[in-house]
Amino acid sequence: MKIDVISDLHLTKLNEFVEIEPQGEFIIIAGDVSSDADVVIGFLNDLSKKYRAVIYTFGNIELWHDSNPYNKLKKIKKNTNNNVFILDFLKGIKISNLTITGGIYISPENLTYHDRENIANTDNFIKKLSNLSRTSIHKQIKELNPKIIVTHYPPVSISKLKKLYNTNEIEFSKIWVFGHYHQFKSFIGTHPIIKDVLYVNNASNKIMSLEI
């Protein structure tokens, strides 16, 4: 099976949509589509007409420019099509016998200057979201044993990841897709200690297709 991966488009308006030609059955979007909820909704719904399923998690910029970020996230969930699956660590999904879970996985240490300027009630909101992320992700992994985990932030230090150029003969128990780090485009790599997880990042407006 082939899946498409993308993240960190940072769109600012509806007519800025990038043209995506599907190569896989479904697409994974690891956050940071836009800080504008209507742009996020339009983008996800547009992709939902091209793919069997659209799998998406919020990024940090989706939390910007709203007096109540929770309401903004609820608006996106409420107004996307039925085949758009928004991951928030509350439950996993199953597509083609693949169990998938995920969420933003943010923490106070990850925040940038722009996050602190643009996220309302930053410290309290992020602390609650961080606690939810970190307790829920381990619970979901233990209970669901997902094949694919999608987060905006990586679960390990990116400085430890080693890029792979050929994965055809390597077996991985899990695939962890993340975004946020713009220097990673079409990146596939491993961690020296957590060797059974394949880490994938494509912070780009061009899709990367992954055979699994």
TrEMBL record:
Family annotation (InterPro entries): Calcineurin-like_PHP, Metallo-depent_PP-like
SUPFAM superfamilies, A to Z: Metallo-dependent phosphatases (SSF56300)
Source superkingdom: Bacteria
GO MF term list: hydrolase activity
Listed Pfam families: Metallophos
Residues annotated as domain Calcineurin-like phosphoesterase: 1-183
UniProt protein name: Calcineurin-like phosphoesterase domain-containing protein
Organism listed in the record: Desulfurobacterium indicum
